[in-house]
Amino acid sequence: MTITMLRNPGSQGARVLATAISAAMGVPVGLASVDSERRTRGDRIVLNWGVSQTPRFFRQRRLTSSNSAESVANCQDKRKTLVELMGKNVPHLQFALDAERTLAHEQTVKGWLEEDGKIIARLTTTGHSGSGIVVVRRGGNIPAAPLYTRYFRKHAEYRVHVAFGNVVLIQQKRKRNGFEQSEDQALIRVHGNGWVFTTQALSCDERNYRERLSALALAAADAVGAQHCAVDILANHTSGVEVVCEINSAPGIEAGSTKEAYTNAFVSWLKERT
């Protein structure tokens, strides 16, 4: 059986993971994009690392794929993610769509702003690393946007990695030592704003709710149809509430622990099929 890693052009994470899986199994793992013809024909197992289109050369009857293109699209588009979570009753950020076009939603968004003092507007629903995110504060103008989310007062943010029905790793976002943050950077927890993932001294271990996070992440992955993904969860320790904010079908695997977790999960899954 031929194994192919389907990736978006330039995805270094896919290359790293393909190399690690190849070394662990002793077989080549080729890289392919949606336009690849030679590496997308014939009988093969495809590991889909964040590609939301089905390659035009795939012969579906002879294909075994990890994530479907549809499930990746559900992860990439934040609107689809939240709608799917809502449909499956998975706790998620409160949201409103296209508020500038719908009076009821517009009043909802204004109500959130008045009550909480801030809302989050997403100028794009497919951005990453914080792109397109605008923090709107009370008294400010609400920009036209396809998606708005209610501000969730969080004490911790976790990334729970799910693969083939199991939680393989839990990380927590923490402020990078010595990084001076603006007010908005403190709210938008991305790498460029001084936030990093760690597996050390997790708050969920201190508070004994790792199992709650795991159950929520597995339910979220199931809601969007993803076999492997990283589920970002916000937690309020005072209220004891956790909500899913987004799901990543091609998370960063720069850390050794993350690469190891996904490599082991994929190797186990592949061995069941070869």
Features of this protein?
four-stranded parallel beta sheet, about 25% strand, about 270 residues, single chain, five-stranded antiparallel beta sheet, D-amino Acid Aminotransferase, Chain A, domain 1, globular, alpha+beta
Structural notes for this entry:
With 274 residues, the chain is α+β, with helices and mostly antiparallel strands. It has 3 domains: 2-67 and 266-271; 73-92 and 153-248, ATP-grasp fold, B domain (D-amino Acid Aminotransferase, Chain A, domain 1, 2-Layer Sandwich), CATH 3.30.470.20; 95-150. It has helices spanning 12-25, 69-76, 78-87, 103-116, 183-187, 203-206, 210-224, 256-271, and strands spanning 2-7, 29-32, 44-49, 63-65, 95-97, 118-122, 133-137, 147-150, 156-163, 166-175, 195-198, 228-236, 241-248. Strands 11-10-9-12-13 form a 5-stranded antiparallel β-sheet. Strands 2-1-3-4 form a 4-stranded parallel β-sheet, with helices on one face. The radius of gyration is 20 Å and the shape is globular. The termini are close together.
